[in-house]
Design brief:
Two copies of one chain form a homodimer. Chain A is built from 13 helices and eleven strands. Chain A has 368 residues and is of the alpha/beta class. Chain A folds into two domains: 124 residues, Alpha-Beta Complex (Aspartate Aminotransferase, domain 1); 220 residues, Aspartate Aminotransferase, domain 2 (3-Layer(aba) Sandwich). In chain A, the strands form three sheets. Chain A has a seven-stranded mixed β-sheet, sandwiched between helices. In chain A, strands 1-10 form a two-stranded parallel ribbon. A two-stranded antiparallel ribbon of chain A has the order 9-11. In chain A, α12 crosses α13.
């Protein structure tokens, strides 16, 4: 009896995980985290109207969701002032990135990203046989010119950039992003991950013609809208590209209650504004904690703050390990020199207080 | 400005949809269906405990779901009396089929299924460049011997069978399915879709060693558990195969509330038993309606009934069209001779009454 014959590509892949979930750590430790501020989740949660919509829809969970996402796409079109045909809804940005990479990246195709940028995108590229080329961050910012130059060099089919950036929280002004399009090689698609865009100033939003075939923008209800567990994201792009998703996407892949919740969340922009204000306050508190400990933070346009620990990556990893053991779930950048920082999420007052108490202990332990 | 360069495979795919959702038809008609009994959804819904679990979890939707599905996999292991390492949880059977096909089917690889069987499986096979070979149904049953013979002929990497069958509702006894394993060529994996297995008699459940590397079984919370809109399914297979899903699956793809709901649903087997009893009653009612109209139904081990309309496929399509226009959402098999039937779901009493009233009108119109 022999097992199945995997494709050569899949046979050669490692069984990796882009991120280890906090639940895994909690089980290993035998106790839950006191503060869950490591996955860029939005502790302030979605609009109560979204929760109410979800709970109402739960009673009808026996029905599949509308596979065309008709109502949600129309609402997103109105909200973004673009045609519906330029929007595809999917199972979070992770799901949409998977579909996109599958559509474009085949064996040995070149893809460019920043060294240390979003691992799940890299996971998809490897998973479809693409070759990942990276350029370093420049002063803790992703480097548009270097990304474009590398794209020319390797004839990239995709270039990934997130604006604002994860894991550093930094951002480029919209015109800098928009200018990338003319610097890319022909036939190269810019994957503009705007997961955190609602936290940024309006000037950080790139103004790009919705039918420009050189870019696809990814948005989500996971971050500012506070619905990471719902799995609902969307992409904006040229109609032809958007339609192509229908060739391969899991048409019945959306959770029905999540569809309704996203619709309700979109219609409560007051809640979104209040969330952004709360995040701003939380960032300020995190900055104050850093200052009180003699540490420096990076400016952030997201719901997290990259905090320098005052040493190199090994030092920051020690700080992180102690924080984790102390019940504070945080993460940190994977590569140097960004890994001199830990990434602290904008939690509740209680979360941040717990972090503020744990940090000096962790620093002391790492130092001594 | 040129657009992205799709892979040759995706470039050549049509933008198809395996199924058109009832919402699309409702919008086209300008009114909702009176009876939604066409998508094999379970109108009796999930356990109230599952709905309660979902509503409770909704408040925490700001958190990603546990990417390892730890609690749910353990509960499924206990429920099925197998090790946890033999279970993978995913975004419905549709999602899991997509992952499975991706792992095994490459360009021009052979895959075998029955002509007229599950279109979404075929969608995935085409989507990864496989070549689909089909064998006809035999007396409205899928034909295990013909499937195995064809698998030898084309050196298939996958063979698909659903037991009980969709769209006909027929089934094979467990030993017939189990016997297929010894008839398959080496290195061929049997994809045993058991979406409807909870509706079948215990004798229809194949007894197969959980570590047998020649088969993967697909189960779901969409049908008997009444949670189609939640998108939660699972697969049982050899540990090596199950682990391989981690190479490519969307680790953070599960809806968090759906995880909790599935757990609660699994723990309410009384509700499941009651649902199966209700479905049995509904099947009887549908059979009586057929009889009253001089029509024949096929025996069913599912929550739907294939009903012969008394003519050929064109006749049945006319009946279906009139039913749809009359507010009754039903579907029918795609290919002859199975398309002499329409597929009627086990609805509520009101659903079935509405169908019972509409059917004679639809038959009269089709005849005249």
């Amino acid at each position: 009896m022999t097992g199945p014959r995997y494709t050569p590509l899949v046979d050669g892949l490692p069984a990796t995980v882009p991120f280890v979930g906090p639940e895994v750590q909690e089980r290993a430790q035998g106790h839950p985290f006191r503060a869950r501020i490591g996955a860029n989740e939005n502790v302030f949660g979605p609009s109560p109207k979204a929760i109410e919509a979800m709970r109402t829809a739960d009673a009808d969970i026996w029905m599949y969701a509308d596979p065309t996402n008709f109502d949600l796409r129309n609402a997103l079109a109105t909200h973004n002032n673009i045609p519906t045909e330029n929007i595809v809804v999917g199972e979070g940005i992770d799901g949409l990135l998977g579909y996109l990479v599958r559509m474009i990246v085949g064996a040995r195709d070149g893809v460019v990203t920043s060294h240390g940028a979003y691992p799940t995108f890299n996971f998809h590229v490897a998973g479809f046989g693409g070759v990942l080329h990276t350029v370093p961050y420049n002063g803790d910012h992703e480097d548009p010119d270097a990304l474009c130059a590398k794209a020319h060099k390797v004839d990239a089919k995709l270039v990934y950039i997130s604006n604002p950036d994860n894991p550093m929280g930094t951002w480029h002004e919209g015109p800098v992003i928009a200018a990338m399009l003319d610097k890319l090689p022909e036939g190269c698609l810019l994957v503009l991950d705007e997961a955190y865009i609602e936290f940024a100033k309006p000037s950080a939003v790139a103004q790009i013609d919705v039918d420009d075939p050189r870019v696809i923008r990814m948005r989500t209800f996971s971050k500012a809208y506070g619905m990471a567990g719902a799995r609902c994201g969307y992409a904006i792009g040229a109609a032809e590209l958007i339609t192509a998703f229908n060739k391969i996407r899991n048409h019945f892949g959306m959770n029905r209650s999540a569809q309704y919740a996203a619709l309700a969340a979109l219609h409560d922009q007051d809640w979104l504004d209040a969330t952004v204000a709360k995040v701003h306050v939380a960032r300020t508190k995190i900055n104050e904690i850093a200052k009180a400990n003699g540490l420096i933070t990076l400016p952030s346009a997201t719901n997290f703050v990259a905090m320098e620990c005052g040493g190199d990556g090994d030092f920051a990893r020690k700080v992180l390990t102690t924080l984790i053991a102390d019940g504070i779930f945080v993460r940190m950048p994977f590569v140097a020199p960004q890994d001199r920082c830990i990434r602290v999420g904008c939690g509740t007052d209680a979360d941040i207080d717990a972090f503020g108490q744990a940090l000096p202990r962790a620093l002391a332990k790492a130092r001594g």
